Amino acid sequence: MRFLHTSDWHLGRSLHRVSLLDAQAAFLDHVVATVRERDVDAVLVAGDVYDRAVPPLTAVELFDDALHRLAAVGVPTVMISGNHDSARRLGVGAGLIERAGIHLRTDPAGCDTPVVLADDHGEVACYGLPYLEPALVKDEFKTDKTHHEAVIGAAMDRVRADLATRPAGTRSLVLAHAFVAGGQESDSERDITVGGVAAVPAGVFDGVDYVALGHLHGAQTITERVRYSGSPLAYSFSEASHRKTMWLVDLGPAGEIDAERVDCPVPRPLARLRGRLDDLLDDPALAGHEQSFVEATLTDPVRPADPMARLAERFPYALSLGFEPERAEEDTVASYAERLKGRSDQEIAEDFVAHVRGSGPDERERTVLRGAFDDVRVDDGVREVAG
What residue segments make up the domains of the chain, in order of their start? Predict the structure, then answer.
């Protein structure tokens, strides 16, 4: 059986306030085309369909269109809710939608009720474990400990118990949305540690043939049978070096795994640039990034005038600008207490301006600071007299 493993669509998400809806629509076109062209038998979507619990209408419309198109292809789709989704909202109408071959698994209580698929070699039981927030599901799974390993372990015990009742040779798949130990994080995943220790060992999934994971945005192989597909688009500049893909997995008659990465469309690459502003504007080696989304970190000792406007002249899709001024070595070794020792309020304020801006205040600015401190001292004196 051949299935396409994807996750973390995050429909409705933007990048530094730039809408990614068109790029997400292009990705969903790619999913449908891949299903048709590569003879896919089932599509697995391992959570975070939406970017937030109450998604914008445009994201809902895109999701609705995707469901209709996947149903029209006639290939089963199994989908779970992630920590960004509202499980209840995503699961509305699941019973009716299932008749069209779209299997939504959003209720933790149903984790041991598989979608049963079949090929020439027999049945494949596909179990969906939606995101399990320990504090909310510990009673369902009757666990004493409120952490991710406990609730996912209890859910997997139910999966293995159901699998044991099925005909010998039944192959198995599990979809899960979790942080599995050994996975590499990026900046754009929402922290799930609110429910206790986040990471769970890969061994908690022992006993099944393939585990399709969601949550981490980089495609990665934890073990041969436990994999993250990653997100189809880069959702933070920490993902600039990611190769965005889906897993095309062939499950053999005895549970053998053969996995191939299928590249996702890249509507606009991401670039992280660092250096002095003039160097970034003049360096011919950066010509390849002129149409990229750009995050620039300027290292000029003194903050340049109008840096974003100047940067955008060469890099019109610059989205993020940071400053890390180059400092002389002696400026960085002294402790904060040492720098303050013996200094007046005026001198401390001037040092702060120099630290933030890269150059100290001019005479006019010193006069403004001096006047502000004089006003504060006058106010303090009045309050003392009044007291």
Answer: 2-263, 268-326, 337-387
Cα 213 to chain centroid distance, Å, stands at 13
310-318 — which CB contacts under 8 Å span 24+ positions? 310/277, 310/281, 311/277, 311/280, 311/281, 313/281, 314/280, 314/281, 314/286, 314/290, 315/273, 315/280, 315/289, 315/290, 316/290, 316/291, 317/268, 317/291, 317/292, 317/293, 318/293, 318/294
**Tokens representing residue 232 in the block:** 């189809």
Q: What residue type is assigned to position 88 of the chain?
A: R
Residue-wise burial string across 137-168, b where 16 or more C-beta atoms lie within 10 A, e elsewhere: bbeebebeebbbbbbbbbbbebbbebbeeeee
2-263 CATH fold: Purple Acid Phosphatase; chain A, domain 2 (3.60.21)
- Per-residue model confidence as pLDDT tens digits over 296-345: 999 999 999 999 999 999 999 999 999 999 876 555 445 556 666 667 88
DSSP secondary structure string, 349-386?
HHHHHHHHHSS---HHHHHHHHHHHHHHHHHHHHHHHH
Continuous segment of H or E residues that includes residue 159: helix 148-164
Single-letter amino acid code for the residue at 255: G
Phi first, then psi: what are they for 136, rounded to 5°? Answer: -95, -20
**126 is written with which tokens?**
């596909």
How confident is the model over 1-39, as pLDDT tens digits?
A: 999 999 999 999 999 999 999 999 999 999 999 999 999
H, E, C per residue of 248-263: EEEECCCCCEEEEEEE
Its pTM stands at 0.82
Nearest to 45 by CA among 90, 108, 92, 109: 90
- Going from the C-alpha of 273 to that of each of 11, 293, 358, the distances in angstroms are 28, 11, 20
